[in-house]
Design goal:
Chain A is 78% helix and 2% strand. Chain A is mostly helical. Chain B is mainly α. Helix content of chain B is 72%, strand content 0%. Chain B has 5 helices and no strands. The chains are: A mainly alpha, B mainly alpha.
């Protein structure tokens, strides 16, 4: 066994223990330790990615070399490593981009707990990505819930943040309750918890036609549970409050990464546990497809009406999550590829937009209302540039990351050739238009000189970590937008390994 | 119908799950919401425990040197229940802490009124 093969397991353990260590360190030390852990995880994930790409096949890693049912397993393939690398990199950049806000918003003596929660969140995201065992998946879903709610609660001096946390927590608990009872029923039908064993039993059940109704219920429970947690359209009501009222880094992390962890788990369940042909047979994909379509349109319409920059970005997340569900809802490999690419694209674009929102708040007296943000693009030039890049990417202009995922979604829906194609293409067109309808006015507001000069028009001195985070994210955005071919190929080979 | 009566443990569990779920979703009182959440999770443990039990067998603890698998019930659901209890305890603690904060700030447990009051506040 090569040393590299241990890295995914080590990164989960490292970030879990990082949570413990950060809880006893002082604020700045905790920050440094947390960033160090994230950096190590990034290097680990990238080297594992290289290893899996070289060998060309996924492997199962048994913890402590105990086989099931005593031991626990994680599974490492190209797609998992790719997601882990993106997640750890974006986590690090989101922290850097909002670093001074973290120290302002948290109570002085409790800053280290913020980094504790970030470490726990990282470990649970990695575990959701790598896990090969459904119940481990559930446990880390709950850790993820607690950690992400704690990240929203950081600004507890604002009543809105407290209420947002409560709503977020309650909705998340409803979702995880449904998910847990889904696992329970599935365990009772199959007698296994490891994904490949369940897959075999489920295939047998479908072949013989027994327990067809319970299996449909299970698919429904899994989809509902994870759709609530990933803010799929009819269950998105908690998202704008939670993402709009959190501190900058928290909004970036929640919007860019936490939602994606749940979606990735759902994709894993669809492809590795139940099997796509059965999902198709039960028409669950159609439901997700409709949810995705509605999210794309209604999320954007809601975003158009917002007067608050961060809430607008949060509603835009609802719409972008809709694209991911559209890709999954097509039910084809091409659709899944597009969905995975959309996950990555949104994970590098939305945190950038939230970080710039934090920068604009700095130069506009802490307000995030559009009427105060006039001319903020001049006062914070780098933020203005990054916002333009992010907004154009979200609209889907060529050479930016968002364009690539939209092209893939379009080709995937053309390949599908049925009624869904027409609906998907029409919605993609309308939603692109709607995206433009709120991002372009936002850009215009940011670059309009205000009538009265309340905040001064000179650019202020920016924090170094903020500059680094934005520059790296802009580079990522262009890199994905222009050289998307290797990324798409990696995703395709990762999906091929899913079987 | 007869299936529902033979599997009465599971039927009860699902009914309790429904009660807990709706309470957590719809009740306006935070404490009742938390109780609903605990109902919901406990019903899942009841379901698991009922499914792991095999009639006439004992808990899998070797005392008299009997190592035959036929003598014991399935231990994995019990393990899952333990893990689940730990998770639900920590989430309950978090929810209660949050409720205390809300109560200190707004002097009510009614979530609808809290939301209305929070809307009027400035940031």
């Amino acid at each position: 066994m090569a040393l590299v093969q241990n890295f995914p397991f080590l990164s989960i353990i490292l970030s879990l223990s990082g949570g413990v260590v950060c809880s006893v360190l002082k604020g700045k030390n905790a920050r440094n330790y947390c960033l160090f852990v994230l950096g190590v995880i990034l290097i680990f994930s990238l080297s594992t990615l290289g290893y899996v790409l070289r060998t060309g096949e996924a492997y199962n890693y048994m913890m402590g070399h105990f086989p099931a049912p005593w031991g626990n397993e994680i599974r490492v393939g190209v797609l998992e490593c790719l997601m882990a690398s993106v997640f750890s990199a974006v986590m690090m950049l989101s922290l850097l981009g909002g670093m001074h806000h973290i120290f302002e918003d948290c109570e002085k003596t409790k800053v280290n707990f913020y980094f504790t929660m970030v470490c726990l969140l990282t470990s649970s995201l990695l575990a959701l990505v790598y896990t090969n065992d459904l119940f481990t998946g559930y446990v880390f879903v709950e850790i993820n819930t607690i950690a992400s709610c704690a990240l929203v609660m950081v600004r507890y001096r604002s009543g809105k943040a407290l209420v947002a946390t409560t709503r977020y927590l309650i909705m998340s608990l409803l979702g995880s309750g449904l998910f847990l009872i889904g696992i329970t029923i599935l365990y009772d039908l199959t007698g296994h918890l490891l994904m490949q064993n369940i897959a075999q039993s489920v295939a047998m059940l479908f072949a013989t036609g027994t327990y067809a109704f319970p299996l449909a219920v299970i698919i429904c429970l899994f989809s509902m549970g994870l759709a609530i947690k990933s803010a799929c359209f009819p269950f998105h009501t908690w998202l704008p409050d939670a993402h709009g009222n959190a501190t900058v880094s928290s909004s970036a992390i929640l919007s860019g990464l936490v939602l994606k962890g749940y979606i990735f788990l759902l994709i894993k369940i669809f492809y590795r546990v139940i099997g796509m042909e059965f999902i198709f047979q039960d028409k669950a994909t159609n439901v997700l497809f409709v949810f995705g379509i509605l999210a794309m349109i209604l999320g954007s319409l809601k975003a158009m009406r917002e007067q608050d920059l961060k809430r607008m970005l949060a509603y835009s997340s609802v719409a972008q999550i809709g694209y991911v569900y559209l890709g999954i809802g097509l039910g084809t490999t091409a659709g899944l590829t597009a969905a995975c690419l959309q996950i990555i694209v949104h994970a590098i674009t939305k945190p950038m937009l939230f970080i710039t929102a934090g920068g604009f708040m700095d130069v506009s007296g802490g307000s995030k209302q559009f009427r105060d943000l006039q001319g903020a693009g001049y006062r914070d030039r780098l933020g203005g540039l990054a916002f333009v890049v992010g907004a154009l990417s979200m609209i889907g202009i060529p050479f930016f990351a968002g364009f690539v995922s939209k092209v893939l979604l379009t080709t995937a829906s053309i390949e599908y050739a049925s009624l869904k194609t027409i609906i998907a293409l029409a919605t993609l067109a309308i939603s692109t238009l709607l995206n433009a309808c709120y991002y372009i006015p936002a850009m215009l507001t940011l670059f309009t000189h205000p009538k009265e000069d309340r905040f001064g028009s000179k650019p202020i001195k920016l924090h170094r970590s903020y500059i680094v985070a934005l520059v790296v994210l802009i580079v990522f955005n262009f890199a994905v937008g222009i050289f998307s071919q290797p990324l798409t190929e990696a995703i395709q080979s990762g999906i091929a390994m899913f079987r | 119908m007869s299936h529902l009566i033979t599997n009465y443990y599971e039927t009860t569990a699902v009914i309790i799950f429904g009660i807990g779920f709706t309470t957590l979703l719809l009740n306006r009182n935070m404490i009742k919401k938390i109780i609903g959440f605990n109902f919901m999770d406990s019903s899942i443990y009841l379901f698991l425990a009922a499914k792991g039990y095999i009639f006439g067998r004992k808990a899998p603890i070797v005392v008299n040197g009997v190592q035959d698998m036929e003598a014991y019930i399935n231990p994995i659901p019990s393990g899952l229940v333990l893990t689940g209890i730990v998770v639900s305890v920590s989430v309950t603690a978090f929810l209660l802490a949050l409720t205390i904060r809300l109560y200190y700030r707004y002097h009510t447990l009614d979530i609808d009124r809290i939301i209305q009051m929070a809307k009027k506040e400035e940031d």
